[in-house]
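In this section we walk through a basic example: taking a raw amino acid sequence and producing a predicted 3D structure, encoded as discrete structure tokens. The instruction is simple. Fold the sequence below.
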Amino acid sequence: MLHAEVGVQRGSLALDVALDVAAGERVAVLGPNGAGKSTLLRAIAGLLPIDRGVIAIDSVVVDRPPDEFVAPERRNVGVVFQQYLLFDHLSVLENVAFGPRARGVKKADARRGAAEWLERLGLSSYADERPAALSGGQAQRVALARALALSPSLLLLDEPLAALDAGTRDLVRRDLRSHLSDFTGATVLVTHDPVDAFALAQRVIVVEDGHVVQAGTLDEVAAHPRSRYVADLVGVNLVAGDVRSGVLTTPAGARIVIADAADGPALAVIRPHSVVLARSTTTPSGVTSARNLWHLTVVDIDRMDPTGSRVRLRLDGELALAAEITVGALDALSLAPGDRVEASVKATDIEVVPS
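The resulting token sequence is shown next.
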């Protein structure tokens, strides 16, 4: 498990973040560029000493200024960097065996353990290849195998899917989720993508300007965004279900017509500003081409920014949705919690991500 109170001054960035992650728990750290996400990960890994606070892994203090600091190689931590940083001059097998060898494990034992990890991740046939011969997805799995070969108590992932193209990312995300679900240690994932957070983590913390602005499950954070960044990025509707013949059906039985997606498990990404609302007694104006229409109840109206021009509504019923409309539209509809509405979304406005 991880307990971290990280205070770091890096140029204009004053990072002050507290984070606890239990064994077996996966936490995603979200935030805009320059918020301090990677700095936080580097501090936990020991690549950047903290200026104030404390970091403990499995109740063992590894950094507490000014006198206590455990070097990175002596921390029971596995790290997967954004660019993977595989050793070009070593084979895939030797890359995975490197960490245990550096910690004093005999060569034969380290290679045997590395071979087991490669088999587990479906990479046995690449054991003798050099990293240059690998695809992006294969390199990502080798980097994960190298990190897990250390049997770490804590796994740190810094934008692990960012270097992949869109098509590869969907497949690798699915594989990564499967592997992380079997990991019994604590996991901290840095990402800028709410789909990655939804698919890979159980809880999120949102960091802006070096400070935590929100924390909780993605649904909890999305329901009441406390900043424009959270509203725009984390506040998307992510609906899990199964696609068959152009329709995604949720476990509760709600149906979402989509424009184009392969059959199978998937996430429907519906942006709140794509949801058009009308009173249940009227026909939504200008959305006759919408193939999705749900009768829902207004649960909450969040005027996140009273001086702004838009408000966010939380809706519930056969489908739970967040919708974002103008203040003028809210006044025209005279909506209040408890009111029934028709929520419409065009199929072409829905992005589908295989899961």
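Looking at the output, two observations stand out. Confidence is low (pLDDT under 50) at residues 284-288. The chain has nine helices and 21 strands. In the next section we compare this with other chains.
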